[in-house]
Amino acid sequence: MAAWDVPLFVVASAIAATGQRIAVIVATVWTILVTASLGVFALLTATAGWGAVLMTAAAAASVLAGLVILRGTVPTHWLMIGPFRIRPAVAGASARRHVGATAAQIVVFWGLALGVVPALLAWVETMWMLHLSVPAGVRITGAVLFVAASAIGLWSGAVMSAYGDGTPLPIATARRLVVRGPYRFVRNPMAVAGITQGIAVGLMLSSWIVVLYAVCGSVVWNAAIRPHEERDLEARFGEPFRRYRDQVRCWVPRLTPVPVDQSAASPVGASAE
Questions:
Q1: What is the pLDDT along the chain (273 residues), one digit of tens a residue?
Q2: Which residues make Cβ contacts (< 8 Å) with residue 41, sequence separation at least 6?
Q3: How far apart are the C-alpha atoms of 270 and 226, rounded to whole Å?
Q4: For domain 82-265, which CATH number applies: 3.10.300.10, 3.30.365.10, 1.20.120.1630, 1.10.10.10?
Q5: How many CB atoms lie within 10 A of CB 140?
Q6: Spatial distance between the Cα atoms of 193 and 200, rounded to a whole number of angstroms
Q7: How does DSSP classify residue 167?
Q8: Residue 176 — φ and ψ, nearest 5°?
Q9: C-alpha–C-alpha distance, residues 117 and 211, integer Å
Q10: CB of 247 closer than 8 Å to CB of 258
Q11: 211 to 18, 101, 221: CA distances (angstroms)
């Protein structure tokens, strides 16, 4: 593999610097294959764990660089597909139906993002011999954070589905601009809660990789997904959303809540999430 690395990565990268598309593809695909191979090798031998981590970062950087060279930008709109496609909820559905749909979304997404994925990452971390022991107080802190963040997430989902004529999920997003409950303090309480939950799970599992996973998730959401959602909100709500955006920060909560916006009562927009 080291011998093949010279022509397929070193030479291909040099040629890619001249703008040759095929060289970009070759170097990127090779980096991904090397990363996958090293990851499997680390799992089977319990060695080279740090190498697998560094190669994972290198592969991610190679993919981003390749996209920029091939397309001129990182196509973040590719993320807005499937359950992340922005589409207002069906008009006329009852609040009970929206609450039920929100509950189902929470069960599925929390189960995957806060259960299955962290468990898998923690297992890989252990197999790669990268697991670190932490004091019991760290795990207790994680449990407290998880409970607090979960309460905020549930509160946000309940408010959105009860007052927004929709759900927090983009594919059935709320049709009303919600400026109630936690949305009066911070613009994206469910995102804040979700990232905090992820970090809390990492602390409870004593897994720094899970904590890193949560932090990386916040970066991706803030840089790639939030701009699309907020452009959609501004297009559909106009001045009411712009006023709300100017008053309420995205990540840092206000000390005092903004007034409930009664002008957002008509179902012509989407959620503030």
A1: 778 888 888 888 888 888 789 999 999 999 999 999 999 999 999 999 999 999 999 999 999 999 998 998 999 988 888 778 898 888 888 888 888 888 998 999 999 999 999 999 999 999 999 998 889 999 999 999 999 999 999 999 999 988 988 888 888 888 899 999 999 999 999 999 999 999 999 999 999 999 999 999 999 999 999 999 999 999 988 999 999 999 999 999 999 999 876 545 444 433 444
A2: 47, 48, 52
A3: 13
A4: 1.20.120.1630
A5: 12
A6: 10
A7: B
A8: -115, 145
A9: 12
A10: yes
A11: 38, 29, 15
Write the CA distances from 49 to 2, 55, 123, 202, integer angstroms: 18, 10, 12, 18
Q: Are 248 and 72 in contact (CB under 8 A)?
A: no
Domain ranges of the chain: 2-74, 82-265
C-alpha Rg value of the chain to the nearest Å: 22
- Contact between 70 and 24 under an 8 Å Cβ cutoff? The reply is yes
* DSSP type of residue 76: G
Give the Cα separation of 196 and 176 in Å (integer): 26
Q: What are the backbone angles phi and psi of residue 108, rounded to the nearest 5°?
A: -70, -50
Residue written as token pair 């999920």: 169
Instruction: Name the β-bridge partners of 173.
Output: 88, 167
Token pair of 5 as six digits:
């690395």
Residue 11, Cβ density class (10 Å: 0-12 exposed, 13-18 middle, ≥19 buried): middle
